[in-house]
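hey team, just a heads up i'm posting the complex here instead of the shared drive bc the drive is being weird again. everything in one block, sequence lines first with there labels, then the predicted structure for the whole assembly after. its two chains so it's a bit long, scroll down
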Amino acid sequence: MITAATWKRGLQKGILTTWHLARVIVPVYLVVTLLKYTPVMGWIAGLFAPVMRFFGLPGEASLVLVLGKLLNIYAALGAISSLDLTGREITIIAAILLLSHSLPVESAVSGRTGVSGLLMTALRLIMGVLAGLTVNLFW
Amino acid sequence: MDWNGFVREALLGVGKNLYIMAVIVIPVMVVLELARDLQVLDRVAGWLAPAVGIFRLSREAAFPLLVGIIFGIAYGAGVLIEEARSGRLSWRDLFLINVFLSVCHAVVEDTALFMAVGADGLVILLGRFIAAILITYIISRSAWLERESVKRGLPDLAGAAGNSPGKCC
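-- predicted structure starts here --
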C-alpha cells in the first residue's frame, strides 16, 4: 500500500543518501581539483598512461579507478566530475567500476553470506578489466 | 599555483555536484520506496522464478536476486542472510546469487549517477546485465561448483532431485 509514509520515507532516504554522497564526493572533488593545479596530477597521469591506454583512457583516469575500487562509486564520481573526460571515457570507467567497486566493504558482505570474499574480489577485478577492454574495443 | 582559478572551479564544481546528486538521488529513492510498498518485486519475482532455472537455481532464489539487482547488495544481502537461515536456499544458490549480484546490483541508482556525469546509460546497464548472465551461467555449469556443492553437504539441485536423502520435508 502506498501511503503518505511511503513518500516521506522516500524523500528522507533521498536526502540522507544525498548527504552521504556529498560527504564523500565533495572532499574527493576538492582534492582532485587541487591536484590538477599542481604538478602531481601530471606525474600520476604520466606514470599510468601506458597502462590506461589499453582501456582507451588518459593517465589521470587511474586516480578515478583506484578511488572507486578502494573506496566507492561516489568517490569515483567526485573525481570524474573534476577531470576533463569525454562521454566515451566516462562510459569505459563506468563499465570497469560498476563491476568492481568498494572491494574491501563488499567482499566483507559476501563473506557474511558464507561465500569467500577473496574469491569474489578476484573475480570482480578480472571482470572489471575484461569489461573495460571490451567496451574500449567494441564501442 | 593559480589559487584564484582553483577557488573558482572548486566552488562552481561543488555547487554543481550537489545539485546533480540531489536531483537524481531523491527521485530515485522515492521511486524505489513506492516500488517496495506496492510489492512490485514479489510479483516480478513470481514471473522470473522459471527464468532462474537457466542457472539451475531454485525458484526461491528469484526474489533475493531481484531485490539485489534493483536495490543493491546491502538490501539484497539482508534478504539473502534471512533466506540462508531459513534453509530454503542451498550453498549453491547463495553462491550463484552472490556471483550474479557482484556484477549487477543497485542498477537504478548506479546507472542514474553515472549517466549524470556523462556515461552512456544503455551501454553500462545492458553490459552489466549481459556480463552477469554470462559469468553466472558459466560458473553454474562448472565442475568446480558441482564439487563444492557436494563437498558442503547440501542437496545438489542440478541433478540429484530424485536421490537427495539430505532434504527432508
